Amino acid sequence: MKADIFLGETKVVFCETFFSFFEDLLKLSEPIVFITDHNVKELIGSSIQRLLQEKKRSVFLISIPPGEASKSREIKEWIENELFSIRFPKDGSIIALGGGVVCDMAGFVASTYMRGVSFYSIPTTLLAMVDASIGGKTGINTSFGKNLLGSMYPARQVWICPQFLESLPKREWLNGLSEIMKIGFTLDPELLSLATKKMDQIVIFRSCLAKKQVVDEDYQDRGKRRILQFGHTIGHALEKISSYQLSHGEAVAKGMAIEGFLSYTLGYLSKNKWDSMREILKSCGFSFQVDPKISFSQIQESLEMDKKGTDQRGRFVLLQDFGVVVPFQGEYCTHVDDKVLCKAWEWLKSCPI
Amino acid sequence: MKADIFLGETKVVFCETFFSFFEDLLKLSEPIVFITDHNVKELIGSSIQRLLQEKKRSVFLISIPPGEASKSREIKEWIENELFSIRFPKDGSIIALGGGVVCDMAGFVASTYMRGVSFYSIPTTLLAMVDASIGGKTGINTSFGKNLLGSMYPARQVWICPQFLESLPKREWLNGLSEIMKIGFTLDPELLSLATKKMDQIVIFRSCLAKKQVVDEDYQDRGKRRILQFGHTIGHALEKISSYQLSHGEAVAKGMAIEGFLSYTLGYLSKNKWDSMREILKSCGFSFQVDPKISFSQIQESLEMDKKGTDQRGRFVLLQDFGVVVPFQGEYCTHVDDKVLCKAWEWLKSCPI
User: What pLDDT is stored for residue B1 in this prediction?
Assistant: First the structure.
């Protein structure tokens, strides 16, 4: 299968193998800088660099430590200084080669380097393929919370190549699966069964297509796009509280459970669907367990910096059915009474697995 | 006189006094944060804050040290942390209140805080009114050069109020005059005599209007907008080499002299016009003198990071007449042979005043 879709200004190219898009890389303006992490560099980054150098391309590779801790101001500054050191010009090309961390960071760097240089993306994890590399959001974390600094800076082109998933560790599969389930619950329920049966290119393509519908309608994230934040209000809080020891996917799964609980408790979602939702998440391998030491007030404090929040309180995306988010007058998210939220948190804490 | 123009997405409002736009500020979404410098805070910032607080608005004021040294990553980080500390939300408003440094910094902060919040600008210097506050360029400096990090992030609204110029120091007048002369030489020659006769609201309005024509045509700065870089190639290099002791206007005036010399020497500009250009710049009060210790190789090194440069070499904007820039196949700038450039530099160094 080979197919292209446009997501805003981004051309998303789906292709089976690396060699089916190698020609595209040869057309990019030079110099080319890959931003990657140490693992991906070793697995494929250095080889790709060599292949391009054999074709006489001017190619550099900047590699950062893997993991969420790299999404920091310090690492951004370090990358920028590397770029300055090689006199990287405004008409060069930056390519993210890696997972969500690399895509978020490389896009942010590209957006502010000399007020913006051409940016491309080669996601190598399931999460980055279905979420981080498409839609234009870039960002880094600060001690105040996740993705609190960043920009809207869509890649010109994204190459999605499932070949890179062959060496993906199990935890990384779950990370991506969580975002696919999110799209299943909120936009395309057929994905819920498709993805649990067989994770293939069709599932990835379909997830991207569903994301495209929402992003094309509300690129600036002022309404409908907030659907894609399902599970992320509590998810981001849990990630931050765990100092990013909890993976994004694990945290979002727990966040979806909370928002499922809220959707049911507040009368939007039927009991059947709420039961089914928990079953689906569990069958994927997600755990609802949270550190029992985390207090409700810690959660509340973290929610103060929720980007879709108002009045220093987070807002939640709620379901009225699989594939149907409660619209809340075009806001697609809502405040929830503290008592109800506290009940949801206590319920999550009581989950045995 | 009260008039509005649209510059891209930015509404530029020209008004005589602060009170003719105070009503507009009352309509902004809260909380409102003014980013300003210590001088402007004392002169008007605190009073404006008080006036808005009397109208029950939630208003904060973040003040940085005046001067180009504040356009740093460290100050950006400090401002962001102040915003996080007050839990400044994505739906609040940031207003730049100050000169070029404040406008460049506040715009950059607004563009990356939570991936972008609403940004407004109240320029208080001539330079900021005719240049820094309009056109969407934001930026900070690094040790590698000027404005090397930044974003394209136009203010939603800019209020230009010459009342604020009443307390402007002489050096600041020259700073702004330099950008107006730049517009005169490249786009609107009538400004050359108008601005030297009487600096009034008409001159400011006309400068903005000329800038608008170019920015509307080439917002992304890939061709025609480079006209506005006249004088800036050498100007930025001199500012950086002087560790920003030289003001932007002084540096750009010397840069314009160099590009005038190049335009004449390379046969684009008549001797008459070149003689006249030097006279005009001198009559404004600009000096062509440079630190004789600066070597040509220092200049060359600084030009390696010129944002419109290619092949690690700066490019220059040349005149064929007042109001007419050499188009160079739509590039509006060109490389210049090192020997010719060196000659221009030696000429500048030999200028007695």
Answer: 54
Asked whether the beta carbons of residue A151 and residue B150 sit closer than 8 angstroms, the reply is no
Contact A104, A150 (CB under 8 A): yes
Which segments within A71-230 are labelled E, that is strand? 93-98, 118-123, 140-142, 145-149, 157-160
Nearest by CB to B115, from A87, A116, A151: name it.
A151
Judge whether B138 is closer than 8 Å to chain A, CB to CB.
Answer: yes
Angle formed by the axes of helices A170-186 and A271-284, to 10°? 160
CB contact under 8 A, B113 and A149: yes
Work out the mean pLDDT of chain B and round it to a whole number: 96
**Region A103-108 average pLDDT:** 98
Among A107, A175, A105, A116, residue whose Cα is nearest residue A141: A105
The answer to whether the beta carbons of residues B256 and B264 sit under 8 Å apart is no
ipTM attached to this prediction:
0.96
DSSP β-bridge partners for residue A62: A35
**Interchain proximity B149–A89, CB inside 8 Å:** no
Q: Is A292 exposed, middle or buried (0-12, 13-18, 19+ CB in 10 A)?
A: exposed
Q: 112-131 in A: which are within 8 Å (CB) of B?
A: 112-116
Q: How far apart are CA B79 and CA B63, in angstroms?
A: 9
Residues in chain A closer than 8 A to B144 (CB atoms): 81, 84
pLDDT band at A352 (very low <50, low <70, confident <90, very high): confident
Kindly tell me the burial class for residue B223, based on how many C-beta atoms sit within 10 Å of its own C-beta (0-12, 13-18, 19 or more).
middle
Question: Does A80 sit within 8 Å of B142, measured CB to CB?
Answer: yes
| 3-state helix vs strand vs coil in chain A, percent to 5 | 50, 15, 35
Question: In chain B, which among 7-66 make CB contacts under 8 A with chain A?
Answer: none
> Which chain A residue shows the shortest CA-CA distance from B81?
A144
What's chain A's length in residues?
353
Task: Out of B77, B80, B111, name the one closest to residue A151 (CB).
Answer: B111
List of chain B residues whose C-beta atoms are within 8 Å of the C-beta of residue A240: none
B315 vs A: CB within 8 A = no
Helix (H) or strand (E) holding B203: helix B201-217
Average pLDDT over residues B133-146: 96
* Best residue in A75, A112, A302, A315 for a mutation probing chain B (most B CBs within 10 Å): A112
**How far apart are alpha carbons B295 and B293 in whole angstroms?**
6
Q: Which of residues 140-159 of A touch B (CB under 8 A)?
A: 142, 144-145, 147-152
Q: How many CB atoms lie within 10 A of CB B17?
A: 11
Confidence of residue A90 (pLDDT cuts 50, 70, 90): very high
Taking one residue from A and the other from B, the number of pairs with CB-CB distance under 8 angstroms is 89
H or E element that contains A35: strand A32-37
Strand locations in A139-295, DSSP E? 140-142, 145-149, 157-160
Q: How far apart are CA B204 and CA A155, in angstroms?
A: 38
Indicate the pTM of the whole model. Answer: 0.97
Of A184 and B8, the one with more pLDDT: A184
B321 touches chain A (CB under 8 A): no
Q: How many angstroms away from the CA of B323 is the closest CA of chain A?
A: 27
Whether the Cβ atoms of residue A225 and residue A215 lie closer than 8 Å to each other = yes
**Beta strands A93-98; A32-37: pairing state:** parallel
Q: Which of B17, B277, B337 is nearest to B161 (CA)?
A: B17
Q: What is the pLDDT of residue A2?
A: 64
Nearest CA in chain B to A221: B115
